[in-house]
Each structure stands twice: as C-alpha cells, then as structure tokens.
Amino acid sequence: MLTLEDALRIVITAASGQLSDLQETVFKRTWQGQSYLKIAQDLRYDEGYIKAVGAELWQVLSKALGEKVGKRNLQAVLSRHAHRFMTTPCAEGTDLADTFCADWGEIVDVSEFWGRGEELVTLSQWILQERCRLVAILGMGGIGKTTLAAKFAQQFQGHFECVVWRSLLHAPPLEVLLPTLLQGIDLQSSPTVHLAEQIQQLLGQLQRQRCLLILDNVESILCSGRQTGVYRYGYENYGDLLRQLGDTKHHSTVLLTSREKPKEIAALEGPLLPIRSLKLQGLQLTAGTEILRTKGLAGRSDEQKQLIECYQGNPLALKMVATSVQELFGGDVAAFLAQDSPIFSDLRHLLNQQFDRLDPIEHQIMDWLAINREAVTLATLQDDMVPTVPPGTLLDALKSLCQRSLIERSPNGYIQQPVILEYMTEKFVETIYTELLTQTLKICKSHALLKAQAKDYVRETQKRLIVQPILEKLLAILHTPLKVEAHLKQILVTQQAQSPLEPSYVGGNILNLLRALNSNFKQQDFSRLSIWQADLRGVDLHHTNFSHSNLAKSTFTQTLGDVLSVAFSPDGNFLATSDISDEIHVWRMLDSQPISTLKSCTSWIKSVVFSSDGQTLISSSEDQTVKLWNIRTGQLVETLQGHTGATWCVASTTDGHILASSGEDQTIKLWDLRTGQLLTTLQGHTDWVLSLAFSPDNQQLASGSHDQTIKLWDLRTEKVLATLSGHRGWIAAVAFSPDGQLLASGSADRTVRLWNLRTQQWRVLAEHSHPVTSISFSPNGQLLASASEDASVKIWDVRSGHCVNTLHGHTSAVWSVQFSPNGQTLASGGVDQTVRLWDVRSGHCLNLLQGYTNSILWVSFSPNGQRLVSSHADQQLRLWDVRTGECLNVLAGHTNYVSAAVFSPNNRLVASCSDDQTVRLWNSETGQELRTLRGHAGWVSSVSFSPNGQLLASSSMDCTVRLWNLASGQCLSILKGHTNWIPSVSFSADGRVLASGSTDRTVRLWDVQTGQCFNLLQGHSNQIASVAFNPQGRLLASGSDDQTVRLWDVQTGECLKTLMNHTDIVRSVAYSPDGKWLVSGGGNQALRCWDVSTGEMLRTFQGPTSQVHSIAVNPNGQLMASAGEEGVIRLWDVQTGQCLRSLTPDRPYEGADITGVTGLTDAQKATLQHLGAVDRQSDAMFELSASMLICDQ
C-alpha cells in the first residue's frame, strides 16, 4: 500500500518540485478522501477556487505521467507509476556531484515562486531528455522569464557539471562577457586575446563538459524600435556567438531569456531540432490568486479571476495592481472592476500610473536607483540626493516603494526589477534630454547622469545607457556635434550668470556630456560652477579655468608611475601605494580618493607596509634606506640606515615591535620599530634578498632571495631553521598562511609553491606564463592571490590548489597584490601606472586608480642634429626643434610606456618601443605611424638602427633580442642567451656587431650576420642598464646599477677601465662623436663627463632634480641632452657644463586655474598642481610671506 508520504514524494517529483503550499494541502486532503467543499470550509476558501487548484494539479500530473489523473483515480494511477519514482536514482546528479561547480552571478531570489509547473516540465524534457543545445524563454516584461530560468537552474543543477548565470541587463560588450563565461565554466581558464579564439574556447569547454549556461535579459543587446531580433550597434558579434552555439554539436545547454526572439533562434529552431523557444504566457488562475493573496488582496474567486485575466496573468503587473487596488479602492476588487474600463490596460500604462502617484521623494529615489544600476544602501541614497533628505523620510519612502512592488530589498540594499529599471532609465533619459533641449533644468540639477566615483563597470554602463542615449537624442535634433557642444556650453554660461555655485549636478553633467562628445576642454571657462561627479581622468585641461568652482565628487588624473607596492591599513580604511616616481600615495578606500602624498627621496620606493596599529607607514627604497612615516600628519618620522645596497623589502611583526628589511647587500636587518635601533643582521643568502614575511606568531621570519632559495629564520636564536629549495628562479615573494601552517612563495620560474612547514613538502601552482612577482593570503587563509609579469592576477583555492579566478585588466606586468583585511577586496598595482581594486567574489574591477607620470625615458638626437626625439611614460613620443625648443609633433599610438625612440640614419624614420610589447616605425616629418612590429612576449626596452638603416634591433623583457628587416617588417632572427631582461642594445659603427646589456649582469656581443654570440663580458656586480659603442667600434661602454661604468675591448672582451665616481645607479652612457670623452648619468642626479683614454672625470653637470634615465650627445659634440623622472629635457653646453635650455612637455593640467576651488582634499589639490594646475591665491600668499620675511631681515 502506497503511503501518503511516498505518494507526495511521487507527486513532487512528477511535478518537477513545483507544488505550492495550497496544492500540497489539496493533494494530501484529497488522498485522505476529503471533498472539495470540506477542504474549502476548513481552509476558508471559496469551493470553486479549491476545485480550480485541484484541476490544475491533476492536469500537471496527467502530463507528467502520461495518463489522465483525477480525484477519483488518484491513488490507483500513482500506485502504478510508483516504481518509476521510488527506485530510479538520478544517475546524472549523483555522478556529477563531486565535480560540480556553479557561478550564480546575479541570479535572482526564487524563494517566492508561483505556478509554471508545465513550463518546468517542458524545459526539463527539452534540456535533460532531448539535450537541446540552445533554448530561449521568451515573453513580455514582468512575465517571469528570469524567475523561471533561475528556478530551473537551481532545481536541476545536479544534472550538470557546471552552471553559470550571467545577466546582460547592463549590455556588456561580448569582449567583456566572454572571458567571464570562460572562467565561470573552467576556473583555470586563461582566455585568449582574440574574440574568435575565445568563442572557440567556449565551444570547446561546452563540448568537454555538461554545462548549463544562462544568459538573462538578452533583449538588452537588441535594438528597440527596429525589426525584432536586430542587434544594437556594436553588439552584432553576439549573433555570431549564438549561431555557433546552435550550429556546433556540444553536450551543454545555453538557456536565454529575452523579450524578443534573436534572429538566430528564429532561423535555427524547430520542434525536432536542438534549438527551441518557449513563449511564456501569463500565470494560471491558481498561481495568480496566490500572488493576490500574498499581497493581501482578498475577494470572491470570480472577481480575482477577472482581475487576473485583465492583466493576462503577468506576475509583476498583479503585484503592482494589488497595491493600487488597496490604495485607490480600499482593497475592493469589485469596485475596481466596476470602472468603465481598466485604469491601466498594460504593464507600461500600469507603470505610468504608479509613477504618477509617487511623491517627490519617491520620484527621486526611483531615478537614483536607475542611475546607480545596482543595489544601493540608505547611506548612498542620502549622499546622492539634492537637497538632502532626512533618514526617517527616506526610510518611509523606501518602505512605500517596496509595498508598491516598484523596488525590492536585497542583501546589499535596494534595487529595481529589470523591467522597472529599463522603464525608469528610458523615462530619465527622456526627461534630461527635454530639459537640456529647452534649457529648463530641474531633474538635471538634482540628479547625476553618471557617478565619477562609481565602480568602473557601473560607470561604463551609465555612460552607455544614459549619457550616450541623451547625446544621440540631442544630435538627432541639433544635427552636428559642434551644435550640440555649443548648446551645452551655453547652458553653462547661463548657469554661471544666473545660478553660480548653486548646489547642483548641472556642471558635472554637462562636462560628462562634453567629454563623451570628445570636446576640447583646453582654455575653457568652467569657473564659479558646481561641478559634481565629473569624470575628468585622462582629459587635458590646459589653461582651463575652474577658479572658485566646487569640484566635489569629481575625479582627476592621479600622479602614479609604475606601481611597485600596495598595502592596506589594518582597519582597511586606507591603501598605500609606492611607485617609481619616488612617491607614496595614501588613498581613502571609501571613495578611492588620495588623502596624502609622501615624498622625501629621489629613488624608487620598492615596498610599503603599515605598522600593526596603523599609525606608521614603513617604506624601503633604492637609496638604501628604510623610512618611517606618521600616517596622520604625513611627516617623515625617522630614516633607518645601514644597508649598503638598494632596500627591496620591509615587513613588521603583528605586535608592532620588530621591523625587518632586506635588499641587494644580501642581508636582512632587524630593527626595533619603537626606537629605530638596529637589533641584528641576518646573513646567509648569497644574492639579493627580495622578499620577507613574519610568521603569525612572530617566532619565525621567511626570506626569499635571488639565489633561488627560501630561508626560515628562528628570531629567538637568529639561526636558519631550514632552507627550502625547489624553485628554478629568484624568489620574488613569500607569505605565511594566517594559521602559520603553510608558506607560499612566488618565483621567476613562473610558479607559486605552497610549502607545508611541518613536512617541508610542497605543491606547485603553475598557471602563470611569466614570473610571479607578488602573493597574498586572504585573511581566512582559504584563498591565495598571485600577481605576475603576464599582466594577470590569479586567485587560488588553497585547499585544492585550483585557480578559481583570473583577473584581467592590467596591460603590463603586475608588481604587487594584497587582500583587504576583510577579504572582500583585492588591490593590485603594476607597470601600467594603475592600481586596480577588485571584488574578490565576482572578479569585477571595482575601481581603477589611473596614474600619470611625466617621466621621460629616452632622448636621442637626429643625425643632422636639428631635432630631438623623446619617449615618455605617458605613452607618447615628442619631436623637438633643438634650436627653438619648440615641440614640433606628438606621436601617439603606443598603449603603454614608450621605453626608447631613435632616428634612422637618414633622418626620415623614428623607431620606438614600448611596454605594450611592440616596436613602431614613424614618419619623422609627418608623425604618421608606418608600421607596427610584433613578436616580443614582454615589454620592449630598447631599439637601435644599423648604420646602413636596413636593420633594426630590439631588446625585451622576454630575454631576447630581435633583428628586423625594415623594408619588409619581418623578424630575421631571434638572439637568445641572456637569462634576464635586456634594457639596452647597440650596433657597432660598421654594423657587424650588436651589443646587448642585461639585468643578468652580462654584456653579450653578437655577430649580426650569423646571430651567434661570440663574446660574453662579465664583471659588473649588478644589472646593466645601458651599452654604447664608441664611433670607431673598438670600445664598448656599459653602465650598471653597481654604480660603475666599464670600458671594454670589443675584440678581446677585456675590461680596460672601470669608472667609479657615481654614488648611485648608472642608467645611461653615451660617447662623444670623436670618441674621446664619455658622459654618464643615473640615480644620483648629477651627470659626469669622462676622459676615455685616462678614465679621469672631466666635469660634473648639476641640475636634474631626480633620477636621469637617458643622455645623448648631438653629432657635433657641442650639446648634450638629458632627461628623466623630473619630466624635463635639459640641453647642456658640453664644454662649460652650463644648462642652455630646458624643454618641458605640457602636463595634463598645465595652467589650469584652481584658485579658490572647494570640494577637494589638500592631497587632490596638490596632485592637480603637480600636474600643472595653478592656485593663484596660494601663490600670492607664498609671495606675501616671502616678502614679509625679507622685510624682517
């Protein structure tokens, strides 16, 4: 005999789990023999309604079981089918359980789910039984497409190896979406660069695994107002993806939800084909009634039926109309239905009616939720709204909106359903467009079009879905961008005249619109305006007038060089970064704004770390010192000296008592952090000590070295406990797990190793394609982050050793990575002059701190001596007239630092190389880019023309030198032999020999014709930065970080002289045209001129204020050019040592007037001034103070 419990289990399984509480009750009581009347009386329902509930349930069971089921034969039918449901396990679910993975993305909550039993059966038949590859759920807005897809995914996830949910609500370009899909399916996936290859990767994954991939809100990438199924401009490649997903045989299913049917689905679908579409209709009577009851709306069953039919069973419409019936008719459904015609005939009319009934505060909230695009907290809303709304009033309005079903409460705040978000966005865009066109501003004053300080992906969505549509509407009426620009600027003029400094978003909105139009901001008057939420990063503001404006919440370009280190404060409120521009920046995490800049030296700051109490910031630098800073005042507290080489790393104990430092002198020094006293020096490594980490109990210290070993030190005895060997490259990073059981290490051998400290056994994590530079454990010890020169950050599951996410965004090597104290955010910084803040859970880049540095990396004279080319960290080259000092041309095209640039022997070409891994050829007269040479697998550091101009040599971080045929652009040969990157290459005068200098401390001489290395010059004790042949080709000069210049005999390889007067690294060397003297420059700011025959220093050139990167001598030997970190090219009289002229490129904010501005921190103002802005008020105060001081004397 079948028990009630067994019978119920059969029914739930047959109905795909979709029994409402009422259906389950009706089934139980029917099984027990109760009549519909008895059930209705006991439950206080209308008998007709209970009959309808039962009829719908029997219909679902009949379809599932393949025979008619009714109240009378219920027990007999279920008994016949019991064996199917009681004995057959879900094999697929069981088999896949151990390997199952899910990335639920932005999946919705389906704890409240009504009806849709038949639809779930249909989907399970198509997807689980018939193995359809591509299925679309279609229907109008609010009909429940997303909810149905989510319910299916969650209920049947056990039938798949992997489930990935992605929302297209914010219309991500396919180039953005695909990498997230690939990594959602395969956690260890490393997406390729090209889109076509990524699609093939995805297809391969879908063939290898049984996956369920859900793409929600596909209508967001389709054109509205056009023929159905047509893609928006720029999104046509989605069609290629869908076509291949449908055409290609694979084992997976891609489930779409959309209000429109994509044309690929229409072309490929068929009842016997593996591509199907399911058109959703409204909910049936039972489910619709339950929604009304949930919303507190009672009434007779016939009235409820009429109401449900009026709105075609649309769940969202039913929720909203229930609220309206209660508010307008006191909950009387009959009175509502007695109207001559429905007050709102469809969803849009219903939304219009709901919106019209909102009070002004509710209006503002709805607009701001549409602007913010994602869940928003009460505090954020209060900060956004102008004028400010009291918290109590705001909470009342939010509660009202929730009751109206216009917004929902999520764990992260308040949010709108997609259909309402789209409605509000369209309404907001139309309102702003009308106000701008008529110049009657209201909403444009109280609302921002985008939030400059928002998360990166949110801000990009705001640009795409709000700013751009407004511009398109204006362009349709005003016809040309110039007319739109003039119209917008006139609004600013009116604002300046009529409402100067009125608390308003107008100024920021107009500037954001102008930026999207690519308007020129130079020499514009934006004074006496409230300019809120303007995104001015990367915008040139030369001589722009912002005087007396309020710039609150606006963002600007920051001063950042290559970022070498990132560190969170213990409370997570601040982030410190250091870079090659010799500065430490401290950022406030709340809004990612700089609050202070610390500077006191002229060397790269290799490492920063906070003390355990967060009051002190500790830094190490190339000047061989460790510095302690007061984080509150920004003042330098103490300088610790003792190292005899560059200091690479600092670390402090968790109790704040001991500080460790290490560096190029192969030692580790322990300091008393409270007194600054040197406690001891640990010796044992045989090469630079690059990384340090204290154990959580402060009993041990781990050190990683260039000697490829890790040493564990007992801090009590100061002895080595163990030496860990296994890496086949230098150890760039070490870190203890929070429980102290594991030690992680990252190496130049491209691996991360996890060492069990008890057994000294290790596990190798090998996913990076370039050296690993930095590692960090999450606070709970479950995750490990690693950064690499391959421009990626990887997050690893410590227990399994699997890579669970790869974060892409950096465009060059990533030097540093660290988890925030709460483990939710990850910071990374690198060579691309950016700091990125990542959401650990989603992998989204939350914020990008984009830097600018005016550093000049290379200078070179033209062969005729009339022009000079300079390469810059701002990704550009500049050509200068030597006689007048005028900048003749700016060459743009590289996407990262331009490392070097040289003229061809005939003056016609300029060759440049960059951290973007390319070499580019330019027409030196027109500035036109002629050719891009690709092939290097790392940044390209140096280029050199052969004397006949037919060949070009390039050297790279990939440890190779390439020889290129300039006529064809083909790579003729790849010279291999160096074991580290190669900063410099140079041809001999006859073009037969090529010299390369490397950070592996050697110079190699190559036979150009054969590509063979015929001599290896050894003697430098540190990396080599520059090599240069004398004009006769018999001597070679090399400059090194060991503070020397060496002169070599090219034929014999003998070191003839060592020039030792520099007190810091030597970055550049250059011979005079006659070869009799040599100039050198580097880290000690001074340039030196040497007699080649005697090795005597002839003179010193004083003037540069920071590290010199490059020097060059003009063809007649009378002028020398130098350039470096200070961003100035100096032209020197070689004979007198006098600086004749300084050439200074315009900085981003050159001459911008920020006199009297408000809304900025002191650090922000200082940054603007560092980038060229002027504050006439502070300048006048300085002059007044100076004159008073003179008078006092």
How would you sum up this structure, described in words?
The chain is built from 27 helices and 67 strands. The chain is globular and about 115 Å long. The N and C termini lie far apart (112 Å). The chain has 1193 residues and is of the alpha+beta class. It has six domains: 1-88, no CATH class; 285-351; 417-556, no CATH class; 558-838, Methylamine Dehydrogenase, Chain H; 857-1143, Methylamine Dehydrogenase, Chain H; 1162-1192, no CATH class. 49% of the residues are buried.
The strands making up the biggest β-sheet line up spatially as 1-3-4-5-2-6
- Ends: how far apart? 112 Å
Shape label: globular
Overall CATH class of the largest domain: Mainly Beta
CATH fold group of the largest domain: Methylamine Dehydrogenase, Chain H
- How many domain regions? 6
CATH superfamily of the largest domain: YVTN repeat-like/Quinoprotein amine dehydrogenase
User: Whole-number average pLDDT?
Assistant: 86
Approximately what portion of the residues adopt beta-strand conformation? 25-35%
**Unreliable spans:** 86-98, 340-344, 1184-1193
What keyword list fits this structure?
1193 residues; alpha+beta; 6 domains; six-stranded parallel β-sheet; 27% helix; disordered C terminus
Question: What is the strand and helix layout of this fold?
Answer:
Blueprint lengths: L3 H11 L6 H11 L4 H8 L3 H19 L8 H14 L3 H6 L4 E3 L13 H13 L4 E5 L6 H11 L6 E6 L6 H12 L9 H14 L2 E6 L20 H11 L5 E6 L4 H6 L6 E5 L5 H10 L6 H10 L4 H15 L3 H5 L9 H10 L3 H13 L5 H7 L6 H13 L4 E3 L2 E3 L2 H21 L4 H4 L9 H23 L2 H18 L7 H11 L18 E2 L18 E2 L1 E2 L3 E6 L5 E6 L4 E5 L4 E6 L6 E6 L5 E6 L3 E6 L5 E6 L5 E6 L5 E6 L3 E6 L5 E6 L5 E6 L5 E6 L3 E6 L4 E7 L5 E6 L5 E6 L4 E5 L5 E4 L6 E6 L5 E6 L3 E6 L5 E6 L5 E6 L5 E6 L3 E6 L5 E8 L3 E6 L5 E6 L3 E6 L5 E6 L5 E6 L5 E6 L3 E6 L5 E6 L5 E6 L5 E6 L3 E6 L5 E6 L7 E4 L5 E5 L4 E6 L5 E6 ...
Parallel strand pairs: 1-3, 2-5, 2-6, 3-4, 4-5, 9-10, 11-39
Antiparallel strand pairs: 7-8, 12-13, 13-14, 14-15, 16-17, 17-18, 18-19, 20-21, 21-22, 22-23, 24-25, 25-26, 26-27, 28-29, 29-30, 30-31, 32-33, 33-34, 34-35, 36-37, 37-38, 38-39, 40-41, 41-42, 42-43, 44-45, 45-46, 46-47, 48-49, 49-50, 50-51, 52-53, 53-54, 54-55, 56-57, 57-58, 58-59, 60-61, 61-62, 62-63, ...
Keywords: Repeat, WD repeat
Pfam families: Beta-prop_EML_2, Beta-prop_WDR3_1st, HTH_VMAP-M9, NB-ARC, Pentapeptide, WD40
Protein name: NB-ARC domain-containing protein
